[in-house]
Amino acid sequence: MEQVLQWIADHQQMAYIVILMVFVGIEVIGRVPSVLHTPLMSGANAIHGVVIIGAIIVMGQAESDNIPALVLGFLAVILGTLNVVGGFVVTDRMLEMFKKKK
Question: How many domains in the chain?
């Protein structure tokens, strides 16, 4: 328990920034009109390609005996890829709605 409290004390500014990011994100997303929500979220999902690149870098820099870093990096690559593909699928479906029917 002492180690957890020490880690929190050492990274107090980072914790404040994460908490503020959560509140700002909720406010920004809450004020988006429902008509724009789907294209905005599908675009945001496509941006998660950065997560994939970061995970690949983490896995490349991790030592071969550092199993937690390799597992978390692998999961980040898989989940980031699913998010990117899902964003493009949602965008494609949305654009299909606007095409003229024959």
Answer: 2
